[in-house]
Recover the amino acids of this structure.
């Protein structure tokens, strides 16, 4: 198999062979990650550790061959090796080899879970490519609004945290303003760890207000992104409709031109007969 064919299979996502390779790779990654998670359980590790290690070596050899082929057939070897996905590809196979040479670093084997990041390669497949592109456009369009929203929330949290520090004070667990801001963030996001709680009636009233405000705020970023999605979809539909109208007009014009040509041809034939 030549280098060009390998590149089409490994890096190509529009070809049938490239799509098949990406889907196989996706399933291999998922199964290998499941094995890593199962191996982290002590009881499963004690009973099936040997089998899981054998499976892990099979996956590691598979990923090593794939990594070597990517380096071999890529058009820019250095760019791939030092790219984000290139580093992830290397980190997905390195821990197993390191443990083989130096067992005490066994905790590093959990880095293998980073193989999961490689699933993002599926976004190269055409159905997901369009969806990913739509999401990217929507997020990029809504970025200024989201930044303003985050800055506004940060300001609100600082004000509410400072206010709670003034109301409750150090005697009720709100030792300083940063700790009070931490409490405000926890309460606003409706997490509520309960490590710091207001004691006074006014403090509890403020806490209730922050909780209600938190529920109202949660929907804001979702609404912003959804609105951008809807706007981009409507824009895309309009462009599609315009494109279809233009195509119909072009077909109509071409048909009219053909009819005119035939009429001219008939007129010439009639003139010749005369």
């Amino acid at each position: 198999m030549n280098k060009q064919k390998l590149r089409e299979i490994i890096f190509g996502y529009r070809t049938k062979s490239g799509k098949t390779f990406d889907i196989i790779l996706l399933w291999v990654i998922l199964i290998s990650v499941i094995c890593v998670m199962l191996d982290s359980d002590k009881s499963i590790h004690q009973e099936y550790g040997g089998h899981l290690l054998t499976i892990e070596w099979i996956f590691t050899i598979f990923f090593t061959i794939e990594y070597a082929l990517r380096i071999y057939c890529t058009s820019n070897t250095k760019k791939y090796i030092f790219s984000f996905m290139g580093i992830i590809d290397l980190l997905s196979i390195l821990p197993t080899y390191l443990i083989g040479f130096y067992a005490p670093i066994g905790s590093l084997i959990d880095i293998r879970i980073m193989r999961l990041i490689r699933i993002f390669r599926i976004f190269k497949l055409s159905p997901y490519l369009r969806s990913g592109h739509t999401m990217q456009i929507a997020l990029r369009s809504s970025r200024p609004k989201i930044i303003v929203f985050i800055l506004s929330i940060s300001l609100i949290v600082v004000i509410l945290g400072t206010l709670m520090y003034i109301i409750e004070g150090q005697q009720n667990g709100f030792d300083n303003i940063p700790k009070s801001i931490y409490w405000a963030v926890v309460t606003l996001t409706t997490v509520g760890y309960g490590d710091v709680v207001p004691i006074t009636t006014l403090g509890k009233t403020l806490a209730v207000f922050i909780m209600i405000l938190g529920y109202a705020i949660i929907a804001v970023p979702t609404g912003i992104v959804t609105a951008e999605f809807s706007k981009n979809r409507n824009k895309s539909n309009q462009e599609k409709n315009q494109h279809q109208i233009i195509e119909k007009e072009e077909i109509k014009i071409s048909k009219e031109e053909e009819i005119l040509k035939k009429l001219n041809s008939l007129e010439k034939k009639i003139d010749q007969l005369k």
In short: The chain has a mean pLDDT of 80. The two ends are 69 Å apart (CA to CA).
